[in-house]
Each structure stands twice: as structure tokens, then as C-alpha cells.
Amino acid sequence: MKFAFIIDPIDRLDPGHDTSVALMEAAQALGHDVWVTQADGLGVEGGRAMGRLQPVTLTPVELGSDRWVAVPNWYTLGESAYLPLETMDAVFMRTDPPVTVPYLYTTYLLDYVDPQKTLVVNSPQGLRTANEKMYALQFTQAIPETIVSRDKAVIRATVDRWGKAVLKPLGGKAGEGILFLEAGDRNLNSMIEISTRQGQEPVMIQIYLPAAKDGDKRVILLNGEPIGAVNRIPTGNEFRGNMAVGGRVAAVEITDRDREICRQLASTLRRDGLIFVGIDIIGDYLTEVNVTSPTGIREIDRLNHVNLGQQVIEWVVSALREKRQ
Ligand SMILES: Nc1ncnc2c1ncn2[C@@H]1O[C@H](COP(=O)(O)OP(=O)(O)O)[C@@H](O)[C@H]1O
Ligand SMILES: [Mg+2]
């Protein structure tokens, strides 16, 4: 089969860490043709989504002492062609957040991929529906106490009530803009003003979960089912566990509570075409649903001796076969 990946410029990917590369490698290893494109190479012509596609051949990473290691020239690109995306069997939308207006435009372009011919992972409609912070709000049994507001008085009153809270910009990722708030902090007003851009943008305020010091668990879901997990533990004076800010990764079990949270999400994720998702769980609570370009596969593969990329590609192949029968 033919698999296209919409990625950030390939020379900026980190083959030892990035899930997109793990998925591409898995597709290649299973005998499929792998193509890459970027959001800026997409368009619509004659009612069909087009992409400037380039075939790519990868030299797979190898296991080093504490991470996957790639050779310096780990990819070779072939000649590019501007083709209808429906010439591909599946298209993985893997552009990194933030979700900007151009990102949203890309999802509108992807609406012009014929679903009878090509599976888009994740669904462009789903990508528009699921703001990575706000999507979790509907799972009221799974999330900790959380509000969304741009109103300083509301935010202050909430922080005063809870004592400790975490502020999250609604479009953030990788720990960016995440603040620890404490009642009585002399910077509180100022932090709210900066984060809401003087009340122009709503932010999320969530009760501080002390369990965060033991880690922020990433659970990978494939069509609503948990297939793997990794813990990210804050290091030094940092309260955030994100790998991008130095979080230490460690093997972790998927607990009964984690499975229960996944069960609460499963049918909604399927309805929204959110096939490949990474949820964040702190203690017993769901804190985030990552749908744009979830990561974690490389770390899970290394720590648990599994191959999640292969599982994902096999699932996509069988979903396509079923649809075409
Ligand atoms: N409610 C919370 N209590 C304590 N720490 C939190 C809470 N929510 C998030 N964090 C910390 O902030 C980090 C980033 O939060 P998250 O909501 O996953 O946003 P993102 O990963 O998109 O930046 C997490 O890794 C975790 O360490
Ligand atoms: Mg997160």
C-alpha cells in the first residue's frame, strides 16, 4: 500500500524520538511505500486534495544505550510529484501543533480527500473538533476540577478556592506557557493578564494534582484502545513532566483506572475519527487529549520492547481492507 505522511520539514525531525519517523519506518518495514509531504505542499484541484509528494527510503534507527540512534543520512528522498492524495491508501496528518489558522486551513484541504479511497489519520473533522485542552472537558468523570475563563475575577476566585492550580494556554503543547498558580502569589494578577492577553483569550485553570511529581503518563490509544504507555517525570525544579522540558521517561503500567478512562473516551474518539491519540493521565485523572501529532512511541518501544508503529500500520491496513471488501 501507499502511505503519505504530512510532516514538518524532514530534516528537522528527530528520528530517535519522533513518532512520525517510527510510523514511517514501520510502514516501510511492512513492505509499504512511504511518501512525505508538508502542509505547504497541499492544495485542491478539481475538487480533489493534492499534495507535493516525495517517496522516501529510511534507514531504521538502532537501539543505543538510552535512546534510539540513527545514522546521519537516515532518509533518502525521491523525485517529487504533485498528485491527488487519493493516490495514497492512507494519509497521516502529523504536522506539529500549535493549531494555527493555516493549520486549520490544512484540515479543510484534507476534507477533499475521498474517504472511500483514502483513510486520513486523524480525520480532518476530528482535528478541528478536538482542541487538545478543551476536548477533555466533556469527560467529566475523568478530569480533575477544571475551568476555562478569560475573566481575571473568575480565575482568581478559583485559585483562591483551590489554593494551588495549573494554568494552560488552550493552544499550547510540550509544556509551553503552562504555569503553576498559588493563592496569594504576588505575581498572580500579572500571570493571568499575560496568559489571557489582558482578558482577550480564555485559558484553562485546573486544580493542581500533587501526583504530577510522580509523573505525567502518556497513554497511546489506537481506535480508542490503549496500546502502550510511558511515564514522564519532572526533573530538577521543574514541575512540568514534558519530555521537551527535561521530563525523564520511565516504563509504566496501564492501570485499571487508565483503562476505565480510555473506555470513557473510546466511542467519542471513534465518532470523531481520532484513530491515533495520546492522552495524558496524572494520578487518576485525564488532563489532556493529544490528537494533532501525539508522540511517545519511540520511548514506549524502547522501554517495553514492543513495536507500536507496526501495530498502528497493521490496524490501518486491516481497516482499509475491511472497508474495501
Ligand atoms: N492538573 C495538573 N496538576 C499538576 N501538574 C499538571 C497538571 N496539568 C498539567 N500538569 C503538568 O504540566 C505539564 C503539561 O501539561 P499538559 O496539560 O499535558 O499540556 P501540554 O503537554 O500540552 O503542554 C504536564 O506534563 C504536567 O507535568
Ligand atoms: Mg501534555
Descriptive overview:
Helix 1 (19-29) packs across helix 8 (308-324). Strand 9, helix 2 and strand 10 (119-121) form a beta-alpha-beta unit. The strands form 4 sheets. Strands 1, 2, 3, 4, 7, 8, 9 and 10 form an 8-stranded mixed beta sheet that branches. A 5-stranded antiparallel beta sheet has the order 17-16-15-18-19. The chain folds into 3 domains: 2-125, Rossmann fold, CATH 3.40.50.20; 146-208, Dna Ligase, domain 1, CATH 3.30.1490; 211-290, D-amino Acid Aminotransferase, Chain A, domain 1. The mean pLDDT is 97. The chain is built from 8 helices and 19 strands. 27% of the residues lie in helices and 29% in strands. The two termini are 16 Å apart. The chain has helices spanning 19-29, 101-110, 124-129, 152-162, 188-195, 256-271, 297-304, 308-324; strands at residues 2-6, 33-37, 42-45, 48-58, 62-63, 68-69, 75-77, 81-84, 90-93, 119-121, 146-149, 164-169, 179-182, 203-207, 216-222, 225-233, 248-251, 276-282, 285-290. The chain has 325 residues and is α+β, with helices and mostly antiparallel strands. Bound molecules: adenosine-5'-diphosphate (ADP) and magnesium ion (MG). The site of adenosine-5'-diphosphate has 22 residues, from strand 12, strand 18 and strand 19. Residues 144, 166, 168, 172-176, 178, 206, 208-209, 212, 216, 234, 240-242, 280, 282, 287-288 line the site of adenosine-5'-diphosphate (ADP).
